[in-house]
């Protein structure tokens, strides 16, 4: 670089300090996020343990062979009930042992009858409906079968008798969790079949079941799109607000900055817009609700979108940048006979890409993360935005779920993804703007 | 987010009454099992009521009411709720019920009220009921109740928390009772054979358990912002109460009474002298529960429905013990009873009120209660031995709950007391001295309470009493 | 407003240029003005109105009480305590967090290698929703199992009460902001620094004034405008902070972190006293507006 020829006093020290400070801040800043990501794939016991753990424990897979040779035979439902009992009842007792999945292979006379499986994503979503207490008997499980099927809380593949030879049973494992599993059925005699082996392994995929759980929960509420519905809603809200800000706040600020000649009026208008950021949000909740209701917009995405249109800070920011535009350039365009709109579109906008990008990013974050207002104004889950849905997942009241810290973390991680994508994709434009010397901060 | 859960646990209060025994599970704390969560989500269109519109009855027009009681799609009791709902629709073809999600936060509820969209029927907890009566958000339904043949089915005192100046504002929905949970296993390792019956024994027991089980805590105290909820029990045990309702309707503060000071001193001793409580005294109610079900703390105060939470989190039912409160200097240890009511919107028209009341009474019928109990029994749902009506014997439906747990709950519920009056407004003032003594070893209970009382008197009570007197003067 | 008071122009066959100059700004500004009137001024007007009543939400507006709500809260010591706490937390935030992105940007501008990567990384802490961030920190502060105390323990300090210490609570509330304050602010400052003409830097170097003086006398004055923008939004953000305090402490312990925005929430939604809540909010609005005007005045004098 050119400037290197003139070396400064203390330049080295400055460079060293720069790196040190930057890296230190980045470390501190990202530490909470690393923790968030880690906890999203940890089991509850590790998260809550007295000495924090940093390495997630890979969940256990229990593979059970249930042999019906010699037992009374029944129809598919009978075996289904048996399989579900072998999965759900012991799991409820072993809930604190970080089980990732239980697989049950049903055999009879050397033939495989069925294969059933539940993952922790399914288990934790259904736990409070299927095994809320320790009542262990056939009757209870029979009543639960429709719920399991309807909410897809377990997989069950039926092969039927004499259609698939059973694989050789794996040897029983001595792992502690496998032992606990066997012990459960020693004290609870509910199965008609006989447990011939209990295998143990670990499956890394099950680490990510907290994310899968979220989708399961959402499917029940927001319709077929499940979790994506919330993303789409949040996206639509955020997108609309950003468009409005870029177009109307942009053009308004331009007028404010360049077209109004009276400096008094300019100051008055600037204050008119800016003063609104000093209104405590919580204080206008009730009037805003009444207003939206009178506009017949309650429980719609518009109810969330519209109030965001008025954001004084954006206008303030825009105006600040437009004020720095070289007046001569605009004057030249006008002399050429260009209308104001044309001047704005052809001259101002291309020069102001960085401001527009910054406004878009700045709008994105608070709108995407807003919770209280969307929560109050929406009733139907199909209109929920992401934070509202996140809140719902953490509610324990009024429904039979228990808050799981890893679910909270997982939803936190998910909500970060769009923002990350945004930052990485807009970086280029911001940088471009930075290189543009026509604008001074 | 997490924070809004708070209010549901705050519901607490008392009814003096004989307790019938009933279904297992969450009454008070609003888990989906409470009987109320069960009236259901049949979409308004496809019910018998809809058919009936095609074939209109000549006299009565269709009355449409909104009820905030839709069960969550994943609620365990969704099926029975919808079943009862369909039955109601069949029995009352002229009433069309629209079910909406029950809200959990005051923000959402009050916004709906302000927007003129208050549900015709909603279900406030005990303390919220008092607040809403004061704010005029619930309808006076005295006449409807007095005219109802069902009135006497409710247990004695059940209407107390919804009654003011002789007017009744709500129909009892659910109830719970409180006591001390203990971990039998930890007690056993510590060699404790008899349960503590007094304050001194309680502190000694906590100390022993803590010493004999390294890494555990003797007792999880509640010092968070609902700290007054558990603290009031200690005031009762010391023979007093935090507030006193005067005959003229005004309220007198008793923060500096001997009982209150003694109770706070005991809190201070538990923390600083006996050192038997957790280090994070401000931790949330959920974190206290977590300590208990994960075997980290040996004792915790809790409502009868907490049993389900503990078992649901993998605690072995045979380890869960329950006992009445150890008695304080006054020799008493009453249990606190909380719960919730059905309430009707004051802006509902008389027709809607009647329809709403019919709906509530249908859901409070013997058959409705028994249907729900049977469902819970068949489905292995849990434990709430309390019911608000006399004609339902819940003991027929209890299953899978240790017998000694049940009898301990019964015993704990023998003597009971209402939560202190005006709790929802005074809470922050009471919590302040509690947190002070739990966090500052040098804080003096009397001094702190005196300051709190002065503040509460000036900022809440004076205005309240003036309002009350001016209202009654009219 | 002046511009709108010239309707005859439309009727007259005015010269084109005049017409354009007068009406274009109105058209350009109209959409913004409308949404601000409807969604801000109308609402704050309603709130002020509510503050004059003993507001009855079922049959609004209830009994007119004039300024009584204002007098009532001005006489309670809880309010003054909350106001004091609000300002302490605000000052702590200024001391702990406001300057952080400025420093980050200044040092970032001295780094040439992989500069873009650092800028992206700086965004990450700030995109965590406030609510999620606060929950996370509550976790980390936990004296028993919190990560923060664990790390302090490793280097021989702690465990420390943080939120459990009446004297420490306010600091513990502000501290997370120190770590997460990067964000868009860094980009704004960075952009501003980068747009300082290179010649100025060159001549500063030739003058041999050294990097530290260069930062003080060249960089800082040139980004003053961005600092002002940021400070104004920072100020209302810090004085009205709610979510993080609500989650971390709910105003406790023993009211040590009770701030006015919590009182606003409490009086409305815990005590159903909407009149009082509106009065408190309008008061806060006036306080912040006053501070902002002072800011502008100071800025003007400096210029």
UniProtKB/TrEMBL annotation, chain A:
The chain crosses the membrane at residues 21-42, 236-256, 268-290, 302-322, 343-365, 407-424. It comes from the Bacteria. It is a multi-pass membrane protein. The keyword Ubl conjugation does not apply. Residues 231-426 form the ABC transmembrane type-1 domain. It is found in: Cell membrane. Pfam families: BPD_transp_1 (PF00528). Keywords: Cell membrane, Membrane, Transmembrane, Transmembrane helix, Transport. The keyword Membrane applies. Belongs to the binding-protein-dependent transport system permease family. This is ABC transporter permease subunit. It comes from Paenibacillus phytohabitans. The lineage of its organism: Bacteria, Bacillati, Bacillota, Bacilli, Bacillales.
UniProtKB/TrEMBL annotation, chain C:
The keyword Zinc-finger does not apply. Residues 83-295 form the ABC transmembrane type-1 domain. InterPro entries: ABC_transporter_permease (IPR051393), MetI-like (IPR000515), MetI-like_sf (IPR035906). PROSITE patterns: ABC_TM1. It comes from the Bacteria. It is a multi-pass membrane protein. Gene3D superfamilies: MetI-like. The chain crosses the membrane at residues 21-44, 87-108, 120-140, 171-192, 223-242, 274-294. Signal peptide: none annotated. Belongs to the binding-protein-dependent transport system permease family. This is ABC transporter permease subunit. It comes from Paenibacillus phytohabitans. The lineage of its organism: Bacteria, Bacillati, Bacillota, Bacilli, Bacillales.
